[in-house]
Amino acid sequence: TQLLEQSPQFLSIQEGENLTVYCNSSSVFSSLQWYRQEPGEGPVLLVTVVTGGEVKKLKRLTFQFGDARKDSSLHITAAQPGDTGLYLCASSGGYQKVTFGTGTKLQVIP
Amino acid sequence: DTAVSQTPKYLVTQMGNDKSIKCEQNLGHDTMYWYKQDSKKFLKIMFSYNNKELIINETVPNRFSPKSPDKAHLNLHINSLELGDSAVYFCASSRRTGGNPEQYFGPGTRLTVT
């Protein structure tokens, strides 16, 4: 089973700061997704990256897929309180079986 | 319109009881899932159904039994509940049948076993 380690586990920052969250595996990803989960709700897909070295931007969020497809990062510029939540990376290790990362809990303080 | 709905939202019950959680999706997806999220927020797949057929059955106690009466519904029945079953259970659905599908999650059912 593919293990996805995320770092940091917890992050508490002031509004306006920048931050980066990492997702790493010892295995090569076929593709990788990032989800955000707000308290009391289910995860919501933010992005899917497929190609090694790929960079995708979603407003203030920048997602990067490592060249070797074994790691990914999520960078948030000028964080806002609305960015608060649990960020999860996820990858498919087989037919329809998606493995989720250990999660990064982000708190943005106004 | 709710895409993936689950009932109940909260479930508090005693050890040894049997309970069910229902899930419905109105997205027309072929694949549905059950996940368990523990107190450390780790999300782990339990079951997956494609067109009412079980395709993923992780190492889950056989006290847990999924049932898919049709493509839009996937219910989870739990027998002889134990303290360790306390968690948030999420239902999800996806359209694709391979790769890394985009999954749509329900709001979760918080199960507390006392």
List the helices and strands of chain A in order. Answer: EEEEEEEEEEE
**Would you list the SSEs of chain B in sequence order as H and E?**
EEEEEEEEEEE
Largest beta-sheet details of chain B: 7 strands, mixed
Global Rg of chain A: 13 Å
Beta-strand residue percentage of chain A:
over 45%
Number of strands of chain A: 11
Question: How much helicity do the residues of chain A have?
Answer: under 10%
Unreliable spans of chain B are none
Report the major sheet of chain A: 6 strands, mixed
Secondary-structure class of chain B: mainly beta
- Main interface by residue count: A-B, 26 and 28 residues
Describe the structure.
The complex is a heterodimer of chains A (110) and B (114). Chain A has 110 residues and is mostly beta strands. Helices cover 0% and strands 55% of the residues of chain A. Chain A has no helices and 11 strands. In chain A, strands 2, 4, 5, 9, 10 and 11 form a 6-stranded mixed beta sheet that branches. Chain A has a 5-stranded antiparallel beta sheet with strand order 1-3-8-7-6, with no helix packed on it. Chain A is globular, with a radius of gyration of 13 Å. The mean pLDDT of chain A is 92. Chain B contains no helices and 11 strands. In chain B, strand 5 (43-50) and strand 6 (53-57) form a beta hairpin. The chains are: A mainly beta (110), B mainly beta (114). The interface between A and B is medium-sized, with 26 and 28 residues.
